[in-house]
Amino acid sequence: MSFYTSLNGLKNAQTDLGVISHNIANVETYGFKSSSTQFSDIVVNSAQSNPKLTQGLGATVTAIEQNFKLGPTEQTGGALEIAIGGDGFFTKVGGASGETMYTRNGKFQMDASGNIHDGSDNRLQVFPTDAAGNVTSTTPVSAQIPLTNGSGSEFVSVTVSENGNINAGYADGTVDVIGKVALASFASPTGLKQTGASNWQSSGLSGAAKMGEPGVGLYGGLMSGSLERSNVDIAEELVGLITAQRNFQANAKAIDTATQISQTVINLRT
């Protein structure tokens, strides 16, 4: 029995080491959120068992919990590099796949057709607005900047306001609002499904996305020219790494001790 109990401990420590290593590897990844391993003990009892003689059977991994605390903000100066100063996720739709995903990484760019995307053709979603920047529909659409305005003047610049308005400037000096950045929130963000590249998708655990405008209600305002860095605390992760290593060594030692005891019993002579 002790072999399997310690073997479970080894597997759990290995999982913990993997999670911590993943955190450390992404300490420089924009919009990354760290995770931690949650454990619980295993106890098996029957109605006839004496509770004073109950022996545990080790531990198991119950969850790898995501931590959505805000990461530090880095000023970059890019017009389409945006950080959220509070709660909320940017919403993107794959240009080819049509899949909806959510992210805290606001590093966007514009392609030759005026589409605002993340570099992988996942397009930023915005609420349609009128010329004054008032939202005209609560159904998000892909952000696209017209390369010429109504008078035929060419596009020259873009800015993003704190309230989420994307402002396109043209050669004749006019500025048009082409949409307002749509932010998403979830009843249980820890239930979001990780898909890589600092992207998440909704799941049954997270609930459906609730859309809103930057700076309104629970949604944070936007900071143009900034990016949210990883929220990994490297000092905390290194301490956790040492602890997980010690746990692994202790369980390995327990297996070694059980092996020696078994060998002693086998070698008994009558």
Structure at a glance:
The chain is α+β, with helices and mostly antiparallel strands and 270 residues long. Helices cover 21% and strands 33% of the residues. The protein is built from two helices and 19 strands.
Identify the notable features of this structure and list them briefly.
alpha+beta, 270 residues, 33% strand
Tell me the distance between the termini.
25 Å
Q: Pick out the low-confidence regions.
A: none
* Helical amount: 10-25%
Main pleated-sheet profile: 11 strands, antiparallel
Number of strands: 19
Quaternary state of this entry equals single chain
Strand composition percent = 25-35%
Structural class: alpha+beta
Q: Provide a count of the helices.
A: 2
Query: Average pLDDT, to the nearest integer?
Result: 93
Number of domains: 2
Element pattern in H and E: HEEEEEEEEEEEEEEEEEEEH
Q: Over all CA atoms, what is the radius of gyration?
A: 26 Å
Q: What is the approximate shape?
A: elongated
Keywords: Bacterial flagellum, Cell projection, Cilium, Flagellum
Protein name: Flagellar hook protein FlgE
Organism: Aurantiacibacter xanthus
Function: A flexible structure which links the flagellar filament to the drive apparatus in the basal body.
